[in-house]
Amino acid sequence: MSIKKIAKEQPETFEFFEENKLLAKNEIKKYPKGKQASAVISLLYLVQKQNDNWIPLAALKYVAKLLDIPYTQVYEVSTFYSMFNLSPVGKYFVQVCTTTPCMIRGAYKIVDVCKEKICENQKELSKDNIASWTEVECLGACVNAPMMQINDDYFEDLDKEKTEEIIEMILNDKQPKPGSYRNRKSAEPENKRTTLLNIKNA
Ligand code: FES
Q1: CA dihedral in degrees (188, 189, 195, 200; nearest 10)?
Q2: pLDDT 10s digits, 145-201
Q3: 176 lines ligand 1 (CB under 6 A)
Q4: What's residue 43's pLDDT?
Q5: What pLDDT does residue 195 have?
Q6: 99: Cβ below 6 Å to ligand 1?
């Protein structure tokens, strides 16, 4: 579990690019009059996409104004959900699941690799700002534990060596292959098992 970190250095202002203004308008239109607050998550997601994957405080105020709701309401949402970053993250943002199924399958070996290769502390940028990492709660891929997410992709069935290879690639600005690192297709059983019948140790 990690605490939400808010950037010390903040831009004075924030405004959507023209195309995002249109997208925001469309999101708000999806909800009945007076219920525009429901668009808050979509708008925060748009902010993050526009702003290198993190949300400055000025953007929270901007979204509050767009939705005509109190700033604290937007602040609460942004600090509650782990997918919103309130401080800069690396070009490659590594999220390591350390919830129980991943933990008992070796998640802390992945954390150790991140500490050694990216940065000792989570939520801080690597020396060249190319990567950062954080611990997160279950990412819904428990059957392929242990796993981590890098930007929009999942990397699953990991061990220390595979994680090292993946992290080395991103530190060299190369895109690693997402998916299972034990050659499973999605979450299929290993050894081409298709049934539990007549198989010992199934
Ligand atoms: S516990 Fe790690 S993905 Fe669910």
Answers
A1: 180
A2: 999 999 999 999 999 999 999 999 999 999 999 999 999 888 888 777 777 766 666
A3: no
A4: 98
A5: 74
A6: yes
How much is the mean pLDDT over the chain?
A: 94
Q: Is 141 in the pocket of ligand 1 (CB under 6 A)?
A: yes
Q: Cα(103)–Cα(126) distance, rounded to whole angstroms?
A: 24
Report how far Cα 23 is from the mean position of its chain's Cα atoms: 22
Rounded to the nearest whole angstrom, what is the distance from the C-alpha of residue 138 to the centroid of ligand 1?
4
Q: How far is CA 179 from CA 47, 106, 117, in A?
A: 28, 17, 21
What single letter denotes the amino acid at residue 148? M
CB neighbourhood size of 194 (10 A): 8
- Determine phi and psi for 74, rounding to 5 degrees: -70, -40
Atom of ligand 1 nearest to the CA of 98: 2
Angle at 84 between CA 80 and CA 86, to 5 degrees: 95
Candidates 15, 69, 59; CA nearest to 37 is 69
Question: What CA–CA distance (Å, rounded) separates 110 from 161?
Answer: 9
Ligand 1 mean position, distance from CA 146 (Å): 7
d(CA 57, ligand 1 centre) in Å: 30
